[in-house]
TrEMBL record:
<keyword id="KW-0479">Metal-binding</keyword>
<feature type="binding site">
    <location>
        <position position="311"/>
    </location>
    <ligand>
        <name>Zn(2+)</name>
    </ligand>
</feature>
<feature type="binding site">
    <location>
        <position position="261"/>
    </location>
    <ligand>
        <name>Zn(2+)</name>
    </ligand>
</feature>
<dbReference type="GO" id="GO:0046872">
    <property type="term" value="F:metal ion binding"/>
</dbReference>
<dbReference type="GO" id="GO:0031179">
    <property type="term" value="P:peptide modification"/>
</dbReference>
<keyword id="KW-0862">Zinc</keyword>
<dbReference type="InterPro" id="IPR007822">
    <property type="entry name" value="LANC-like"/>
</dbReference>
<dbReference type="Pfam" id="PF05147">
    <property type="entry name" value="LANC_like"/>
</dbReference>
<protein>
    <submittedName>
        <fullName>Lanthionine synthetase C-like protein</fullName>
    </submittedName>
</protein>
<feature type="binding site">
    <location>
        <position position="310"/>
    </location>
    <ligand>
        <name>Zn(2+)</name>
    </ligand>
</feature>
<dbReference type="InterPro" id="IPR033889">
    <property type="entry name" value="LanC"/>
</dbReference>
Amino acid sequence: MARRPADGARAWPQSLAGGATGIALLHIERARTGHGDWNTAHTWLTTAMRGEVSAAVNANLYFGAPALAYITHRAASAASRYLRILERLDTATLTVTRNRLAAAHQRIDRAERPPMEEFDLIQGLSGLGAYHLSRHPDHQVTRDVLSYLVRLTEPLPDPAGLPPWWMNVAPTGSPHTDYPGGHGNFGLSHGIGSALSVLSLALLRDLAVPGLVDAVERICAWTDHWRQVDEIAPWWPGYISMQQATDHHIHSALRPRPSWCYGVTGTARAQQLAGLALRDPARLQAAESAILATLRDPHQLDKLPEIGLCHGMAGLLHATWRMATETGNAEISAELPRLADRLITALDQDDHDPELLDGAAGAALALHTFGTDLAPAPHWDTFLALA
């Protein structure tokens, strides 16, 4: 993966998830921590910026100007040569964010339910907010995004009593006959978990935005209502349908795999951050108990044969490292070496796509962070809403 990237190797170089942008992040992080060289990082960064940079309506943390600003910010924190291009990318990202905010507030004014791409991490304002909170926490646009996320949690007129982040679409983001009433999404990738993480991180950084605490508490009240408890530890659904909301019941067979995107890997970290932000020891304990039980359950671990950050072992390893280092939980820390060995074994068995979100670059980043026990600010894992 340290090779010079070949021309045309990636159809979407500006994609953080699957393009040169994501692979650049790995090499930037290695260079920042003294374990890689800046020439390799620069080569990948240059490849990521080849062609016209997108600042279109679909630009987001994972694609286009915001994605490039994200990785360039991390490079510029250690190499001043990138400051000028970062300023240009920031200008484009600010415009994208303000346009998205205007559309979101218009939707709320109409008392309509949100589309997934309005607020989620990968496409929406939670992702853009995560970037701005990392890049310039005191900027007005950061406050504006946080204020929007607060407003996202404020009740809409709804005779069914559904939360204001309930979506009319299926978990795919499109209408589907299996979800005639839409769905409520808990996940970090496409659900309210991303907003919970970003709002909690803002509280932990002492940002004085009206309504932050109330917003976190409203989200937590909903996740608490749907939290399930088995004989070992709590878990949360990835999403619920209208029928499940009406029945007030989640079958245990619907427990999601322990992935970052929809499973306990992401949900437990979001709950841990909320527990820290609200100074709620019971929430903190529930989150850490949930991840620890998963790490000690071979059946749950076997549900993650993939290597990646989104759907696989790398996401579990890194979120676990974050949770352990955040509070110094020795029991969680003790499980990390075994999980890292499991990931290394999987990497050795087959060839893997080099991409960041589901491939070898993400796995390498998780192993690099575990091995060095370092993740300096600005944190590389902000795009996962883990820090």
